[in-house]
Amino acid sequence: MSDEGVSLKTLSPRALAWQRRGRAAAAAWREFSSSKSGLVGLGVLVLAVLLALLAPVLSNEDGLDVTKATGGRMRPPDGNFWLGTDVDGRSILLLTWWGTRVSLLIGISAALLSVVIGTVIGIIAAHYGRWVSAVLLRIVDFFLVLPSLVLAIALSTVLEPGIGTIIVAIGLTSWPSAARLVRAQTLTVEARPYIERSRALGGGNLHIIVKHVLPAVLPLVFVNATLAVGNAIVAESTLAFLGLGDPFQTSWGGILHNATVDSAALAGAWWYLLPPGVAIGVVVLAFTLCGRALETVLNPRLREPR
Amino acid sequence: MTSTSSTTTPLLELRGLTVRYGGRSGLLAVDGVDLSLRAGETLGLAGESGCGKSTLAMSVLRLLPKSAQIEGEILLDGEDITQMSFGRLRTVRWASASVVFQGAMHALNPVKRIGEQIAEPIRLHGTVPAGHVKSRVRELLEQVELPVARADAYPHELSGGQKQRVMIAMALACEPRLVIADEPTTALDVIVQAQVLALLSRLVADHGIGLIMISHDLSVLGATCARLAVMYAGKLVEEGPSRQVIGEPKHEHTKALAAAFPTIGDPSSRYAPATSSELGLPGAPEPVAEGVEPLLRTDNLRVTFTGRGQTTEAVKGVDLEVYPGEIVALVGQSGSGKTTLARTILGLQKPTSGQVLFEGKALPHSARALRAYRRKVQLVLQDPTSALNPRHTVYEAIAEGLRIHKLPGDERELVAQALEAAELRPPERFMTVLPHELSGGQRQRVVIAGALALAPTLLVADEPVASLDASVRGEILALLLRLRASLGLAALVITHDLGLAWNIADRVAVMYKGELVEVGTVAEVLRDPKHEYTKQLLAALPDGTALPAGEVTA
Amino acid sequence: MPSPRRGGGTARYLLTKLGGAVISLFMVVVLGFILFRVMPGDPVKTMTRGHPVTNEQLAILEHRYGLDKPKIAQFWDYLVKLLHGDFGDSYQYSRPVGDMILEKLWPTVLLVGTGTILAVALGLWLGTRAAWQRNSVFDKASTGIALAFWSMPTFWLGMILLTAAGGLFPSGGMVYPDTPPDFLSQALDILHHLVLPVITLVAVVYAQYQLVMRSSLLEEMDADYLTTARAKGLRDDLVRRRHAVPNALLPTVTLVFLHLGMVVAGAITVEAVFSWPGLGQMTYNAIGVPDLPVLQGTFIVLAAAVLVMNLIADVLYRFLDPRVRAV
């Protein structure tokens, strides 16, 4: 019990609610920061985002232009080109750096799209019972088992190539797992007696969803979104590798696509393959580690016994 | 069976047993307990949740989690358990002492047939030759009065009582000399509980087994055990013959435990929670005047559920009345339809036929009118811990109803009044607190305050004290009685506990398989039951909690 | 509590599941039509994207593929043909797509099957060990490694393996053309070709099985029935093997089948990298054209295969978990 009752007279109910949220956030941060791997992941992500944002300030975009490339053809790393050059003589370092922008943009947007779709469908399927739920569940189960990459390939083949298409293709194919998760969580929350109490107090559907279900589901959604970004980045690189990316933008998958077209693997040009792949691995791992640490904050059962 | 040990060595002896969780400075769960049990003796261990009674029981077979540190001696047949090698400990487990666990639902492996689970320790300890294991399992099932064919069943296919019988058969499998029963009947209905207790007592007596039984319910222990020990905050506070401990409790805590299970028929325990409290009962309850319109009436109410091709009639034509300012207890066992009836009264469940009338008017169907109705009829749920959103402060929990109904007036003022009415004082101290920072009793008061904030005329309380500890139970019941006296609040209290009805209700309605089998004043129904089922319920109460009809004149 | 009637329940359960699967299959067929016939707006334009064509050529193409009819009529044609196993003709090779799929089916089955079995075995074994030795060096290291592999794009790992170990193993294909036609030589050669693709597939896929097995075992660790088992005097390893693992295995089994779609996705890129002559490589080759009938055919076949596997999983699960059997 706290002694904040004294200050109560000066605080409005809204301010009280925000104070409570602030305390909850601080507690969550304390729990998160006790996870070493989570902190490392967060650090990597902050760095990646900064690099992506600062690329136009710190480097020269001209280096991406094939016609203005200054390096030799597929040259190994040297003093000028720390990570070597691609088939057109562009710096692999510069390409990988700029690739961060597109890969993060697509990864985050696609993950958001999929999580938003999943949350809406998940809550509706759980809250409204009977046939609404039955129909939605049928659809969710269908998309859940459908090989999502095959569907994404199909979508990005028939739509105009571009960043928007890739975001839509990934977002539209990866939402079912979020929907399942949100549905399960909503069902657990709605089985709690405080929902019954809220109904008995006179609360309607909207009141229950907004005041009780959403606040309980959102942290889970946030965790899911964090993990989904990693998956989306891998999916983006896969689509780009298959030649379905935006040919006018530099992404990590796109570099690897070029490397395949130029037979870099057979030519032994490891500097062409390693940097973009390592970048994908590190950023995806960082998102995964962050997501897992957040999961532990939410679910005390996963915590290590002290 | 004859006892093989000498009469001088006790079967089990605890000397200065101390159990602590999480290091030296950690939580002290058991604090210097001395206790002894001779072969064939029965001992009841009573106490509220968290008093350390289960920790003590689990320490006997060293089944505590790794974080627990044990000090002192645990002598089983003179041999110290705490010093045993792991191999020796494994041979002692189940063969010398076995356990009937709390909640048989979870204590049985869900994916193994029960026959296999009973046979497992027999094979492991070589109790009988390998060829005879099957017949031994059959014999055990017969002993616990289960059909032998049930050996092929999985746990989920058995009822709660049957599962507990399986646990007992399992405990007896290796012919142990000591059985520890940890809340063996807590989740069971009164009638099933009586059967299981009788079975356990009989088997223990037949085989000369020593029994330690753990429960929060003094009457259950009194019915089964010769001696009683009461624990409080890790310490043993009282020990003696059962009759003496229950009849003349000495320690403050034992008194509270004993009071929680009133003797039905004893006039001194009528309205006891309020009359024995120092706050007292402001004005004795007045009998309902003749000719007053009932506040709430159900008219031939029926609720039928259909699912998976089956129809279940949960409520079969119920006529029930609640008058203004009256407390009615709706008594029934789980599955009797009493909760469905309550939900229908609150408009949370649509009746299949019949209707609910409030103040003479039928329950409305439109969402808006239903909301207005719900202002007047409020719900108090069984478990206050889950009835409050863990993310909302007490202030928000109480203001929720005010905000839904957009009640006029200063919100903070109204919240403070509600807290005051629920005797949470001073109100300011509680407003910013989250539910998990409160005790169980305080949480239930918050739930009640949330209901009171809307100034209802009827409170529907579903097992309002079932999840609370004995000492808190009285406080909450007293609060309900005082609210009735000061605000004229009527209440429909749903319970499985006849003692609770005797404690606070004016009238009782007994529900059985969806029907009201008996309705009348508390004195009529509980002292002179007419219906066969009511008689069974009263007969199933552990000895000493119901006086035979007519023995006492009120 | 009414005792469950097992016989009637099982038949009903199977019928429900079968009905669901049939609806799902129909949805796949509809989706295949929408994706490749409706969404492109003009398949012929997509087909000829980047090629100079005259309007007459377009009209001829449209007529040849039946694209000048109304959509409903097109759907009916498509449905009738599908039921006869006719997936249309490839734009690229002018051959029936059905025949092409049949040819490429078994290499994919070999790759996905071997990969799944190895990944599941590895994942379950590591997950079980990690859960027992919670917070040990083994637990932390194996979980870390699994997560690292899981974070890598499958195709990239394949390319790196190809660069690093290219000398030891064939760089692509399934058999050398000059291998003697006898069974043993052929089998050994296929095995030789299979090593790198399978390692790649397993490395990326096994992590999820390990993590799921680990967490579901940890969930079971606190279960009361394990205390019962320990109280009975069972050794710790017996408590785990007899009581904990069978319970923890159940959720994992469902996941194995649920994630089959992801293995298939991994296989597509692995086949592309290692030129493994299966459905994935066929898809890869069709993307650039784009050869819509081939993409449509592989989409329908792969989706249907995963759906059927999940139907099998549902049935299997019913016999594994007595609790589901009673419902």
UniProtKB/TrEMBL annotation, chain A:
Entry protein name: Peptide/nickel transport system permease protein
Membrane topology summary: Multi-pass membrane protein
Keyword Zinc among record annotations: no
Transmembrane segments: 39-58, 104-128, 135-156, 162-182, 213-234, 269-294
GO CC, any one term: plasma membrane
Stated family: Belongs to the binding-protein-dependent transport system permease family.
Domain named ABC transmembrane type-1: residues: 100-291
Pfam families documented for this protein: BPD_transp_1 (PF00528), OppC_N (PF12911)
Compartments it resides in: Cell membrane
Main location: membrane
Keywords, ordered alphabetically: Cell membrane, Membrane, Transmembrane, Transmembrane helix, Transport
Source organism of the structure: Labedaea rhizosphaerae
Keyword hit for Cell membrane: yes
GO biological process: transmembrane transport
InterPro entries assigned: BP-dependent_transpt_permease, MetI-like, MetI-like_sf, OppC_N
From TrEMBL, chain B:
GO molecular function: ATP binding; ATP hydrolysis activity
Official protein name in the record: Peptide/nickel transport system ATP-binding protein
GO BP field: peptide transport; transmembrane transport
SUPFAM superfamilies: P-loop containing nucleoside triphosphate hydrolases
InterPro entries: AAA+_ATPase, ABC_transp_ATP-bind, ABC_transporter-like_ATP-bd, ABC_transporter-like_CS, Oligopep_ABC_C, P-loop_NTPase
Signal found in the keyword field: no
Family as reported in the entry's similarity comment: Belongs to the ABC transporter superfamily.
Family annotation (Pfam families): ABC_tran (PF00005), oligo_HPY (PF08352)
SMART domains, per database record: AAA (SM00382)
Coiled-coil portions: none
Domain ABC transporter: 12-258, 296-538
Natural source organism: Labedaea rhizosphaerae
Keywords: ATP-binding, Nucleotide-binding, Transport
Automatic annotation (TrEMBL), chain C:
Record keyword Cell membrane present: yes
Organism superkingdom: Bacteria
PROSITE patterns tied to this protein: ABC_TM1
Transmembrane segments: 21-39, 105-126, 147-170, 190-209, 248-274, 294-317
Keywords: Cell membrane, Membrane, Transmembrane, Transmembrane helix, Transport
Span of the signal peptide: none
GO process terms (BP): transmembrane transport
Pfam families hit by this protein: BPD_transp_1 (PF00528), BPD_transp_1_N (PF19300)
Entries under CDD domains matching the protein: TM_PBP2
InterPro entries: BPD_transp_1_N, MetI-like, MetI-like_sf
Membrane topology annotation: Multi-pass membrane protein
All copies of domain ABC transmembrane type-1, residue ranges: 105-313
GO cellular component labels: plasma membrane
Compartmental location: Cell membrane
UniProt similarity note: Belongs to the binding-protein-dependent transport system permease family.
Protein name as annotated: Peptide/nickel transport system permease protein
